[in-house]
Write a structure and sequence with these properties.
Strand order of the largest sheet: 1-2
InterPro entries: MFS_dom, MFS_trans_sf, TM_effector
Membrane topology: Multi-pass membrane protein
CATH architecture: Up-down Bundle
Number of domains: 1
Keywords: Cell membrane, Membrane, Transmembrane, Transmembrane helix, Transport
Low-confidence stretches: 1-13, 418-427
Protein name: MFS transporter
Distance between the termini: 50 Å
Order of helices and strands: HHHHHHHHHHHEHHHE
Strand content: under 5%
CATH class: Mainly Alpha
Largest sheet: 2 strands, antiparallel
Number of helices: 14
Oligomer: single chain
Subcellular location: Cell membrane
CATH superfamily: MFS general substrate transporter like domains
Shape: globular
Structural class: mainly alpha
């Protein structure tokens, strides 16, 4: 009797796609392509609508803040909820709410009754839902594929997210120019309905058992203590924090380059976002080849990503600027696909939701802080000066952090993506 060899043995180059052999994950990933594309369409339409209503890049920065400030205010409590309830049910509720808010934006945009305050209110409401949705989505991957496929599943999720970031802005740019951005909001509302339907159709018996939800006293404090006492998580999040405040404010910067530097309008804004996404798709897929996850890799990739972004500030033409944007997309994914799995695999299942809520808090909260800051900087010093600051500050911070960690021996921290137990060493 012959037995089929595992995918990674028969085709080593395709081992990164092994999670797609899991039916539940395959369904989840398929619906995510549509969901992520529609999400990016809404982001582009939302930013452009605010720019049309106010003619201010700083106002676009405020829009970013409205969507991410809830993570600063409530983000850690979101992780407590994720560890307390069944993740699939949580996702079904959060996606239903996002769909309702998207439908509201579609109505006001299509009827010409939108105001900047209403858009900001909707962005804030969606941000409140995201406080729970994002860590739930991150942790739910464990239940779909288990530990053996977790790292590659996270890589594929990132590739899907960035594929959406490539498709969404391109479609949104054409849609805005042809019929207006209101339809982008309507498409996102429909995509949320598809996601809820998909979640309801997953085979519950095939999900990997998760720790039973439980109410624990001092649950929030317990999660924070785990983050602070675990060097692999603590230092990864420090690097992430600096990048989130400065480097992840790309929508504000790209809107400024599209309007102030290259004068390309909405189509140029969509093009620039799509170029970043092209690089990110390649980076997410290429990063599946990483087997050993090291803190050293997290810090160095974060530094390289920021340095390339600073280089974009001096590019003289659309062509050279676009080429560097592709490189920033690659760098961003090597950072996230070394940092995110390292954090998840280091955290124990009982606190993983709370640990990932800290990660999400830093990603989204940093953008909430950085959005208006970078918007104000761009208004003060111009798009090129803003881009130089957005990349230069995290690059310098990464170098400083590298030196400090090297002196302490903390860059020796590592974890294997394929071992049943997390192995961490430090000197």
């Amino acid at each position: 009797m012959s037995h089929a060899l595992p995918l990674s043995t028969r085709f080593p180059a395709l081992s990164g796609f092994a999670p797609l052999t899991v039916p539940n994950y395959r369904r989840f990933a398929g619906s995510n392509v549509l969901a992520m594309s529609a999400t990016w369409m809404q982001r582009i339409a939302q930013d452009w609508l605010v720019l049309q209503l106010t003619h201010s890049v700083a106002a676009v920065g405020v829009t970013t803040a409205m969507q991410f400030v809830p993570s600063i205010l409530f983000g850690l409590h979101g992780g407590v909820l994720v560890d307390r309830f069944r993740r699939r049910r949580v996702l079904m509720v959060t996606q239903s709410l996002v769909g309702l808010f998207s439908l509201l934006l579609a109505v006001v945009a299509l009827t010409g009754t939108a105001t900047v305050w209403l858009v900001w209110a909707a962005a804030f409401a969606i941000g409140c839902v995201t406080v729970v949705d994002n860590p739930s989505r991150q942790v739910f991957v464990n239940e779909l594929v288990g530990r053996d496929h977790l790292k590659n599943a996270l890589n594929l999720n990132a590739a899907i997210f960035q594929l959406g970031a490539f498709i969404g802005p391109a479609v949104a740019g054409g849609l805005i120019g042809a019929v207006g951005g209101g339809w982008a909001f309507l498409i996102n509302a429909a995509a949320c309905c598809v996601t809820v339907f998909m979640l309801s159709r997953l085979d519950a018996e095939q999900l990997v058992p998760a720790p039973a939800p439980q109410r624990r006293p001092h649950a929030l404090r317990e999660g924070l203590a785990f983050v602070l006492r675990t060097p692999a998580i603590r230092y990864s999040i420090v690097m992430l924090a600096v990048l989130s405040v400065f480097t992840l404010t790309m929508p504000v910067l790209l809107a400024a380059f599209a309007t102030q530097v290259f004068h390309l309008g909405a189509s140029g804004y969509g093009l620039f976002n799509s170029l970043v996404a092209i690089g990110a798709v390649f980076g997410a897929l290429a990063s599946t080849r990483m087997v050993h996850l090291r803190l050293r890799t997290v810090v160095l990739w974060g530094t390289a990503w920021a340095a390339v972004l600073a280089l974009a500030a001096v590019m003289p033409s659309v062509q050279t600027f676009g080429a560097v944007l592709v490189a920033t997309g690659v760098g961003s994914q090597f950072f996230f696909q070394s940092g995110n799995p390292l954090v998840q695999l280091t955290a124990t299942p009982e606190v993983r939701g709370r640990v990932m809520s800290v990660w999400v808090l830093v990603v989204l909260g940093g953008q909430g802080i950085g959005g208006p800051i970078m918007g104000g900087i761009v208004d003060a010093v111009g798009a090129r000066g803003g881009m130089l600051i957005a990349g230069g500050v995290p690059a310098v911070a990464g170098v400083v952090l590298s030196v400090l960690l090297a002196r302490r021996g903390s860059l020796k921290l590592a974890v294997s993506a394929h071992r049943p137990m997390v192995a961490i060493t430090a000197r």
